[in-house]
Write a structure and sequence with these properties.
single chain, alpha/beta, 2-enoyl-CoA Hydratase, Chain A, domain 1, 2 domains, three-stranded parallel beta sheet, 16 helices, 10 strands, disordered N terminus
């Protein structure tokens, strides 16, 4: 599918804009970077989707990625790192534009179809996870691994994750565990499995679609049951351990649990930023009480700005993609040193920078 040029397709920077009949298509086009999102890409997608929303000739909108490795590995964190080190305000603009685009996708008046083929991480879930029709394949690898780089699962992911069965969403947020197609559907981040061999048929199938029912019927013809996942079968230990009120108690319950997967979850969390773990749990619990997804994005923006102004995010990106030593020096380096005051400062209003959304 990704190698098939859409009729009338035109390349606009790192986005390929195309049309086939009533279908409009945005293809992320940075395959060597696993289609990581830049500010310019978010700006282009926003402009096109605003135009199509008012265009009577436009029916459904499809989002996909170039190459066969992934839809999108997330935001361009190297650009965010470089900007933060130099004092450039790029991060605050990047997140503001990205988050508004994510909400536009969630509230779009026309059907949005996201092809979550291959790697879909972080900002990729921001684009795809809020779409009306979310397609996964046997190659899908879906996750929010941000706690491992001193950040947190942002892009409004806390809203669907807080509503996943039991405490599976909390587990996914705190461990960064990757999901296959079945698990992404189970967790509420995807809707339907279509084999990768059938993806090329989707543009033609959607070319005449004008509403959600027509899109759903066309996609259902191509869908098949996914291979089994593991989340449902792990609910017993996940709900017991991740239903705790504090990260310390989650650690204690995991330590006492003999399940191999529980020990793997504990090991993953021990490598993560202690601060990230605590702000992520607080964010997840808050999201469960929110009534509108916009509330999650407003809070995410506050947390993101606090993270980029702090230590762990810069250190996490350095150790992961800059120096690649995989040995971050977190500050604080243990859970007991992450005080309630440290957590609370990530949730404070940011004055004139507060995100605002139209009703």
């Amino acid at each position: 599918m990704n190698e098939t040029l859409v009729q009338d397709g035109q390349e606009d920077g790192d986005i390929i804009v195309g049309a086939r009949g009533a279908l409009r298509r945005l293809t992320l086009n940075r395959p060597k970077a696993l289609n990581a999102i830049t500010l310019g890409m978010s700006v282009t997608m926003t402009q096109m989707m605003r135009a199509w929303a008012c265009d009577p000739a436009a029916g459904a909108v499809m989002l996909d990625g170039s190459g066969e490795r992934g839809f999108c590995a997330g935001g361009d964190i190297r650009a965010i790192y470089d900007a933060a080190k130099s004092g450039d305000p790029l991060p605050q603009k990047f997140w503001a534009v990205e988050y508004h685009l994510n909400v536009m996708i969630a509230r779009y008046r026309k059907p949005v179809v996201a092809i979550m083929d291959g790697v879909v991480m972080g900002g990729g879930i921001g684009l795809a996870g809020h779409a009306a029709h979310r397609i996964v394949t046997e190659r899908s690898l879906v996750g929010m691994p941000e706690v491992g780089i001193g950040f947190f699962p942002d892009i409004g992911a806390s809203f669907p994750l807080a509503r996943a069965p039991g405490f599976t969403g909390t587990y996914l947020a705190l461990t960064g565990e990757r999901m296959n197609a079945a698990d992404a559907i189970y967790a509420g981040l995807a809707d339907m499995h279509i084999p990768s061999a059938k993806l090329a048929a989707i543009p033609d199938a959607l070319a005449a679609c004008r509403n959600a029912d027509e899109v759903r019927k066309q996609l259902a013809v191509l869908s098949t049951p996914p291979a089994p996942g593991k989340l449902d079968a792990a609910r017993d230990w996940i709900d017991i351990c991740f239903g705790a009120d504090t990260v310390e108690e989650i650690f204690a319950r995991l330590s006492a649990n003999e399940a191999e997967a529980a020990q793997a979850a504990l090991a993953a969390m021990k490598k993560a930023s202690p601060t990230s773990l605590k702000i992520t749990l607080r964010n997840m619990r808050d999201a469960a009480k929110f009534n509108r997804i916009e509330e999650c994005f407003i809070q995410d923006y506050r947390i993101a700005l606090a993270c980029i102004a702090g230590h762990d995010m810069i250190e996490g990106i350095r150790s992961t993609i800059v120096d690649k030593d995989r040995n971050p020096a977190w500050r604080p380096d243990t859970l007991d040193k992450v005080t309630p005051q440290i957590v609370e400062r990530h949730f404070q209003p940011v004055g004139a920078l507060e995100l605002k959304f139209a009703d």
